[in-house]
Amino acid sequence: MAIHPGRGFACINYPIGMNLGGDPAQALVHATPDGKFMVTLSAIDLGQGMKSVTRQIAAEALGVPLEDVHVDTADSDTGPHDMGSFASRGTHRVGNAVIRAASEARAQMMDAASEELEVSATDLDTDGQGNIHVKGAPSRTITVAETAIAAQFKQGKTLSGRGIFLIEPSGVDPDTGEMSPVTTYAHAALVIDLTVDDETGEVEVTEINSAYEVGRALNPKLVEQQLIGGAWMGVSHALYETTEPYYPDRAHGPEDFNSYLMPGPGEIVPHNIAVLERPAEDAPYGGKGPGEMCANPVLPAIANAVYNAVGVRVDKLPITPEKILRGIEANGGAKPQGRPGA
Amino acid sequence: MSSIEFRKDLFADERDDNLNEIGKPKLRQDIEGHVRGRTAYYDDHLFDGLLHMRCVRSPHHHARVRSIDSAGAERMAGVRRVVRASDVPHNINTLLSLIGFGRDDEQLIADRKVAYKGEPVLAIIAETEAQARAACAAVRVDWEVLPHVLDVEEALTPGAPVVNEEYPNNCFDYAPYDHVKLRFGDVEAGFAQADRIVEATYEMSPIEQAPIETCGAIAAPETSGRYVCHTGTQALFFSLGTTAKLLDMPSSKLHFIGGTVGGGFGGKVDSLTEPMAVLGAVLTGKPVKFQWDREEEMQVGAPRGAERWIIKDGVMADGRIVARQFTGFFDAGAYTRLSSYAGTKGTGHLPGPYSIPNVASNVFCVYTNRTPATAMRGFGITGVDFAIECHMDRVAEAVGADPIHLRILNAYRDGDMKAHRRRAKNCALVECCQVAAGKAGWRVSPEDMAASSKTGTTADRQAIPETALDEDGRIGDRKAGRMPSARPAKGTKRLPAGTHGRDHKAVPVQRPDMQQLAERVGHRVAPERDAAPAASPTVPARAPDTPTPATAPSRPTAAPPATSSPPAEARPAAAPPQPMPQLQPAQPKPYEPDTPFRQGVRRPGVSRFLSGSRRR
Amino acid sequence: MAQTPVRFTLNGRETGLFVEEAANLLDVLRRGAGDISPKYGCGQGTCGACTVLIDGAPHLGCLTLAATVEGREVRTTGGMADGPGLTALQTAFMEGFAAQCGFCTPGMLMAAKALLDRNPQPTRDEVIEAISGNLCRCTGYEPIVDAILAASGQRGAA
């Protein structure tokens, strides 16, 4: 009886958005009287950071500081239509809609400033600190606040924008499966190190080394949140989670968190992440949305590492001690495969 | 302790890293509310006189309702209203009917038959949750238990009980077939050419999304005949539209508020709680909460559906995979919800991030007598990625290759043709493999370390091969016993090499002002080109269908990318863009479909909330 | 249904409510006292989202009979910050990105506060033990453990 080390690898790509039937998202942007900007969405923030990432996108596209932008999500009376928060579409679809709305608002802001500064709008730029200045003449400047006040109280203009982003609907050819499922893919690869106890069948994941390609890390801390939490969920899916432990038999389904198992804070796996950024052409600042794909490579990498450790291929999730022990028994003992890539 | 690094050295020529706000680790907008305990989720909107709604649910996998006796329950303390199936004005729906996909197949409250354990047949509204629970327990239902089926392959056999009357063959209709086909090249020829055949079956059991906040909604009469609904939905307008349809109510009467949700992971798309809560508010004139408890969340709420995948590979001795065949089953449970889309999305994902010259798959969306499945993080992909990546290791072992070498050898590269007949671009699988291996100290050969996603494509890899087609598996054939196998059949006809339709892109901006200025895009955008190339002589005019959108769109033939005009060559202060590989000598005439795509039923002139057909 | 009076202090304020005999503290705090910071996640005592402090010790609101807090001191995350500023623990959660959806956060903060109040310099294992009754589905726990250690002045402690 022994504890066997195992190492496994997997890599994946992940489709961003859902083109079926089109996949629209809308956004509205308007300025308050003193030049702060409100972004109104019906997109949902369920923890992934929709409010935060669209706020950063709006600030960048408007050319104003983050602190001067606030995002409101999901009041159907004020937020324009969005399909919803799923299919890794939030950052890509809603982000693009926000860029369009913010671009229109920015164009109006630059027009208003050009009237005040008496120069062409194309000769103006923002400094991202709340000021608009003449290109090449940084002393000829007006604040965004003064611009908004002038626009609304003197010029009679709104600083507002509307945005919609839609990938045109596409279908599936029934004979070949030809389709345009998405416009871009995120990528990941990771190496799992774990141990398998051939007496109890227990698996302990000891380390994860990963590379995730996310287009662009629009906010690196939000990306880190998704990747750390997502890999945790991947470990959980691989080793513990199911509502039907003997699928397709319906018996023994868990009804609470005592029987629906997940790793706790005592089972945190050290996870060394590298983030790669290859911007997608049609994505907001190239960002693809890492939220869904981050769990996916963990599951097969753990299965491959378990095989590497004891020579048992568990092809049915989750990889429970019972399945591992039955496999070891059928093989007449643990069959370590040797460390790969050594 | 975990660590994170940002490999800014990779693909550096494709980005401007000096943006003002993008790329900065700014605090979350919502975080102060979270740590103060002030963030308001749907259940944090307090209403005086709030009533509570709970359901009487089926204890059987499959049963007919002979009668329901709620007389005792109605007399119990605190009970305000018994809600029956007949109280639901338009008691039939399917979630994706809002985009015209699929037929209505699920009732909000079942009236005559239940098809899964936990399906609601009655609801009770009471002054407290405990009273509603007690009253539900006092309801007596006379059940006629029916035979049930729980295994996806068994459900497709001729004798299997019919789970869902709208789909009597126990699988979703992808007209004209009972499955989604993917055909690219000729897998049988590939198998014949291969040195080794590697085959295995993989399975994923259902998984609960398990957000810490359970699903629910609170609805109350507002003003002007309107109803406000606070909800934890992941899709505000899906839930609003579904409610409007089921309650036969103009959407203008509904005011939905949400957007701040205590975790979802896919489990809050189904829009079941919102129509129930609004119905309760309509019937009582009072604020009504319909909230699942944890047990309902675990066993009644839709999980990530189970999947079963059979993969058969033909591989050369050097590790090149020359043919890959899939047979896939998505277990939808009793009703469609989103599983029909899983079949499509899963198929579009095949054969994984690899360039394989011959690919075939049959993917089924199968009805069984279990809790309907729905979305979860990685929907339609997680299970098949598990299968593909376990299979890659099996293939590596079969040919004695290092697992990472096998991946890099077969990895898709920029310009390669994917099995769904669109060109690969913006690839980064090779680099991810290299970086992950480097971090883990997994030794990779110098040749593999020198590989790049930007290079390595060839004329062969860009080409759409002549393709073997078959017409097996028309709707109804399987149930009639005429289809012994679920696997892709041998081809009976050939589709010429190069056949493809056109790519689908972002619709251009409505007004020029909405177009982001080129110098503000922040990353490289390649000149416009078609994602489906003209490698071999192109045979135009096979028609990939296009769906019926909610409103008829115009069809721009060559929409510019969303944020791309003019190309970013004009972008200042960044590395000069690398020339993109020039792959196509001349553009063929853009493809235009001549027949509109139809999937599901829409009746012209009828409200978009009334699409689909009523269950008979 | 029979109602009984209960008096307790909630975040330092004297509070008196009539409650049903079987009412649990979670419902009474939320619907009776209007403090929405404790959350309902399971009602079974398994998720910890309803964690509150009673006389300084962490308790599960959903499993506590409201009548039993008579005369006792109840604290919640809603009353954690005294004044406009945040406590060190709240700041550590905020700056450490220790929350995503935020639904488990009030319970986590209470569990962490109970620990730090009696053990200002906990080890990593002690932090883990202190929050082991609180489930989080988003973060993978590591940022939460790190934030609690950071609040105790031990950023990066092993």
UniProtKB/TrEMBL annotation, chain A:
Please list the residue ranges annotated as the Aldehyde oxidase/xanthine dehydrogenase second molybdopterin binding domain.
Answer: 6-266
In terms of Gene3D superfamilies, this protein maps to: Aldehyde oxidase/xanthine dehydrogenase, molybdopterin binding domain
Q: What domain of life does the UniProt record list for this protein's source?
A: Bacteria
User: Where is the signal peptide, in residue numbers?
Assistant: none
Checking Pfam families in the record gives: MoCoBD_2
What protein name does the entry list?
Molybdopterin-dependent oxidoreductase
Native organism:
Roseobacter sinensis
Automatic annotation (TrEMBL), chain B:
User: Which residues does UniProt assign to the signal peptide?
Assistant: none
Per UniProt, the ranges with Basic and acidic residues bias are 471-480, 520-531
Extent of Pro residues compositional bias? 574-590
Which Pfam families does the record associate with it?
A: Ald_Xan_dh_C, MoCoBD_1
The answer to whether the entry has keyword Oxidoreductase is yes
Domain Aldehyde oxidase/xanthine dehydrogenase a/b hammerhead residue range list: 36-147
Keyword Transmembrane tagged = no
TM spans (from-to): none
Source organism's superkingdom? Bacteria
Residue ranges of region Disordered? 446-616
- Keywords linked to the UniProt accession: Molybdenum, Oxidoreductase
InterPro entries xref list: Ald_Oxase/Xan_DH_a/b, Ald_Oxase/Xan_DH_a/b_sf, Ald_Oxase/xanthine_DH-like, AldOxase/xan_DH_MoCoBD1, AldOxase/xan_DH_Mopterin-bd_sf
Q: Low complexity bias located where?
A: 537-573
Q: What is this protein called?
A: Molybdopterin-dependent oxidoreductase
TrEMBL record, chain C:
Xref: CDD domains? fer2 (cd00207)
Q: Which UniProt keywords apply?
A: 2Fe-2S, Iron, Iron-sulfur, Metal-binding, Oxidoreductase
Q: Which residues form the 2Fe-2S ferredoxin-type domain?
A: 4-80
Q: Which Pfam families match?
A: Fer2, Fer2_2
Which SUPFAM superfamilies did the record assign? 2Fe-2S ferredoxin-like (SSF54292), CO dehydrogenase ISP C-domain like (SSF47741)
Q: Which InterPro entries match?
A: 2Fe-2S-bd, 2Fe-2S-bd_dom_sf, 2Fe-2S_ferredoxin-like_sf, 2Fe-2S_ferredoxin-type, 2Fe2S_fd_BS, Beta-grasp_dom_sf, Diverse_Oxidoreductases
**Which PROSITE patterns would you find in this protein's record?**
2FE2S_FER_1, 2FE2S_FER_2
Report the protein name in the record.
Answer: (2Fe-2S)-binding protein
